[in-house]
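Dear support,

I submitted the protein below through the web form. The confirmation email said the job was done, but the results page showed an empty box. After a refresh the structure appeared. I'm attaching both so you can tell me whether what I see now is the final result or a partial one.
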Amino acid sequence: MTYLWQEERGRKFYKVQTNEKSIANILKRRNKFNLSAIALNANLWIFNCEFTRPDIAKKTLKSVTCKNVKIDSEGVIIYE
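What the results page shows now:
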């Protein structure tokens, strides 16, 4: 499962959290994403990134995961 959320509403700073190694490897190769946290005993990676608009963030997540993107009631963008 991969999550994307905005750190503070109205700001351009986002976080991407994933537990899938293939997606983490794709994000590591992209220049916009910086690895900020990793779990030692589990598959979990958290990346920092910047987007000017939420629709660009959603489009980027869709291109990375190659799956449909959903938005939950709290505004967190996820894919399934």
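Response: this is the final, complete result; the empty box was a page-load delay. The first strand starts at residue 2 and ends at 6.
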